[in-house]
TrEMBL record, chain A:
It comes from the Eukaryota. It holds the Pfam family RabGAP-TBC. Residues 26-214 form the Rab-GAP TBC domain. May act as a GTPase-activating protein for Rab family protein(s). InterPro entries: Rab-GAP-TBC_dom, Rab-GAP_TBC_sf, Rab_GAP_TBC_domain. The keyword Oxidoreductase does not apply. Gene3D superfamilies: putative rabgap domain of human tbc1 domain family member 14 like domains, Ypt/Rab-GAP domain of gyp1p, domain 3. PROSITE patterns: TBC_RABGAP (PS50086). GO terms for molecular function: GTPase activator activity; small GTPase binding. This is Growth hormone-regulated TBC protein 1. Keywords: GTPase activation.
UniProtKB/TrEMBL annotation, chain B:
Signal peptide: none annotated. The keyword Ribosomal protein does not apply. GO terms for biological process: protein transport. It is an enzyme of class 3 (hydrolase). This is small monomeric GTPase. Keywords: Endosome, GTP-binding, Hydrolase, Lipoprotein, Nucleotide-binding, Prenylation, Protein transport, Transport. It catalyses: GTP + H2O = GDP + phosphate + H(+). It comes from Rhamnusium bicolor.
């Protein structure tokens, strides 16, 4: 993991251990926007860009992209009070997705980005920051995940296959014997970056690492989830049971306790 | 035309049950693998939610990748366990679809009766299934959102003719009112 650039003294005045990793404890929620913008490179991207967010916002005109996004707006976190009780948040979500889709023609709008942008907005409450963070994730951290061929996703599913074979050969053989393609159990993990998959607090903790160290945290979390459910996975005897096991992983005690879960993930 | 309420849906279940050949299948448990395909936001997840849980959400979350649900139903002396793959509708997820329809015994191809484009997309799915899926796959065509018939863009007769020409089961459905939902799931199983 890369070296921490944070202060050697914590907020209570104690010296941090030599190998202290800020992400392990998570970024305080009121600092998340600034920290994510800084460590991900989104801040630099924003300032070095030849266009501003508001300039881009004035260029929204592609009817296909607009309609596709509008269909998904009320279908994004329909149970979240901020999305249902305020008009503002869906409008902000529309703006972020539409601006992104217009300035990146190769991706346009891909379902799944609505959940990522939605959580970015809930975390930052800042439309412009959410756009630059989304742009950084899609174009820098996860290249080719969301393009028409989804090449990046398919590649990373193969990488996961190899990692499980290397680190958990028993689970690997079991999953292959049952015949579950990784795409069946884990597409949403990669595409939504665990939003809509794991509890929100846990997702933000994962994203703290994602913005800082890039996409390898996705594999760490994936392996951690699979390891935590080793017994359950090995007890399944057919595809339906196995898929259900993967689907229900969000309910594991350790997954809900985000501190503990991040410790488990970072050991991987 | 068919039932509008859940109660009527239950009656339809019994009607289907009555049509089943008896004798050899007594006390049998069968698994039935089914996949839903169709354009984004036509109501695939809503049809499954109605069939499996009897619920309807005006704003159903968009499905990423695919969702897996099961429903067990007793017909006569046979217990049928439906294993349902509910797929993502956006064209981009198309390349992932074969893993879900491969090995499926039935497919429900869904379109939205208020949107002509979704009917075109349904036809494309039917063609793909006829070429690539198991030759014995049973295909049903569901014209969903029948509760919005006043905004209809796809005529019932047009879809019925297309279904007849292609050997498909066809019903107009409404996940919202439950109309024909149980019926279409059970009809393809029979």
């Amino acid at each position: 993991m890369a070296k921490s650039t944070y202060s050697k003294v914590d907020e209570y005045g104690f010296q941090r251990p030599e190998n202290f990793n800020y992400e392990i404890k998570g970024i305080p929620s009121d600092r998340r926007t600034a920290v994510w913008m800084h460590v991900s490179g989104a801040e630099v991207l924003k300032h070095s860009s030849s266009f501003s967010y508001s300039q881009l916002k004035n260029k929204i005109n592609n009817q296909d992209i607009i309609e596709t996004i509008q269909i998904d707006l009320p279908r994004t976190f329909p149970d979240n009070i901020y999305f249902t009780s305020h008009d503002q948040l869906p409008t902000m979500l529309y703006n972020v997705l539409a601006v992104f889709g217009h300035q990146n023609k190769e991706v346009g709008y891909c379902q799944g980005l609505n959940y990522i942008a939605g959580l970015l907005l809930l975390a930052t409450k800042d439309e412009e920051a959410s756009f630059w963070l989304l742009k950084t994730l899609v174009e820098k951290t996860l290249p080719q995940y969301y393009i028409v061929t989804m090449t990046g996703l398919l590649t990373d599913l193969d990488v996961l296959d190899e990692l499980v074979q290397k680190y958990e050969p028993v689970i690997y053989r079991h999953i292959h014997n049952i015949g579950m393609p990784w795409a069946m159990g884990t597409t949403k993990w990669f595409i939504c970056l665990f939003s809509e998959v794991l509890p929100t607090e846990t997702v933000f903790r994962i994203w703290d690492c994602l913005f800082y160290e890039g996409s390898k945290i996705i594999f760490r979390v994936a392996i951690a989830l699979i390891r935590l459910h080793k017994q359950e996975i090995l007890q399944t005897s057919e595809l339906g049971e196995l898929i259900t096991c993967f689907r229900d992983m969000r309910n594991h005690e350790t997954v809900i306790n985000c501190h503990q879960f991040m410790r488990v993930s970072l050991i991987v | 035309m068919a039932s509008e309420t859940t109660e009527a849906g239950k009656m339809a279940n019994r009607a289907v049950a009555a049509q089943r050949p008896n004798g050899s299948t007594q006390g049998k448990i069968c698994q039935f693998k089914l996949v839903l395909l169709g354009e984004s936001a036509v109501g695939k997840s809503s049809l499954v939610l109605r069939f499996v849980k009897g619920q309807f959400h005006e704003y159903q979350e968009s499905t990423i990748g695919a969702a897996f649900l099961t429903q067990t139903i007793c017909l006569d002396d046979t217990t049928v366990k439906f294993e349902i793959w509910d797929t993502a509708g956006q064209e981009r997820y198309h390349s992932l679809a074969p893993m879900y329809y491969r090995g499926a015994q039935a497919a429900i191809v869904v379109y939205d009766i208020t949107n002509q484009d979704t009917f075109g997309r349904a036809k494309t799915w039917v063609k793909e299934l006829q070429r690539q899926a198991s030759p014995t796959i049973v295909i049903a065509l569901a014209g969903n959102k029948q509760d919005l018939a006043n905004k209809r863009m796809v005529e019932f007769e047009e879809a019925q003719t297309y279904a007849d020409e292609n050997g498909l089961l066809f019903m107009e459905t409404s996940a919202k009112t439950a109309m024909n939902v149980n019926d279409i799931f059970l009809a393809i199983e029979v």
